[in-house]
Design brief:
The structure is a homodimer. Chain A is built from 6 helices and 6 strands, in the order ααβααββββαβα. By secondary structure, chain A is of the alpha+beta class. At the A-B interface, α5 and β6 of A face α5 and β6 of B. The structure holds a DNA duplex.
DNA sequence: GTAAGTGCAAACCTTTTGCAATCGG
DNA sequence: CCGATTGCAAAAGGTTTGCACTTAC
């Protein structure tokens, strides 16, 4: 994890983003939790390493990380208020419905499906959103 | 479209749901728009056929239709506040990024992808969320 | 006729914003 | 040191809820 952390921090530096205590706290919360978290949960966890952390900074940092592609929204049928770490570039999430564990992946060959839908609808498909849900190894027991 | 409308209305009756003026207005707005709509947009459109329609009823009806599987949330990177009609059972949306036109489909063979992810992560994958975005025939011009 | 559903207004929650104080490079 | 960032508190959305009235069946 700490490799991952450094990778993102390095990327942030490269983007000319200041690494403040608040931003590190938000990033660490997401990296250490290894699951999707709401802003409130990030706030609670982040305060452990940065007691003065405000909810406003959590939102500002989440928006920043999302705009730089380091964090993604996690969707569900009702609520879409959770965030999870994402690798650089196109990626998707594999989520444990039981414990929330969230794993990002990039491999997703939808070409046959996309080609079929394009042929049948006349659409030009440009992007896709994909999320897989199930039970992680621990929760299967 | 009016076939579709009847199908959903019949399904509602079968579920023992009362077909009120407000509910019909919400359903018609979504069916006629053929695109994803926010609650506020449904409200505005719905008032054309039911002037007294309140936003509260729009929310209540959307929740009802969603719980019965006739309506789905449409997700995007930032906002997830739009709704669209969905066919009975498992389905996904194909969305035009330009005009919002939304088309629901059910065919999605992700078995190879799912099998691969299960093998590599130990997860037992139970469900998935998929959305395709691009340009519809009209907007491609 | 009666229970389910509606409209209204108030309550709620989450997210955003203005601003003076603080901090990172 | 200087501008970017923060915390706070207030504002702004969007959504939900309590309640008396209305409506579908």
């Amino acid at each position: 994890m700490s490799d991952n952390e450094h990778a993102i921090e390095r990327a942030l530096r490269r983007s000319g983003v200041r690494l403040t205590r608040a931003r590190r706290a938000v990033l660490d919360a997401l990296l250490e939790a290894e699951r999707h978290l709401t802003a409130a949960q990030v706030h609670a966890l982040g305060r452990q390493s940065c007691p003065s952390l405000s909810l406003a900074s959590v939102y500002r940092t989440l928006a920043l990380l999302q705009s730089l592609g380091h964090v993604q929204l996690v969707h569900s049928d009702d609520d879409c208020q959770s965030y999870a770490v994402a690798p650089a570039g196109h990626s998707h999430q594999l989520i444990c419905s039981a414990c929330g564990w969230t794993y990002a992946f990039s491999e997703c060959d939808l070409s046959p499906l996309v080609a079929d839908m394009e042929a049948r609808t006349g659409f030009r498909i440009v992007e896709h959103l994909l999320e897989l849900r199930g039970l992680c190894p621990k929760c299967r027991e």
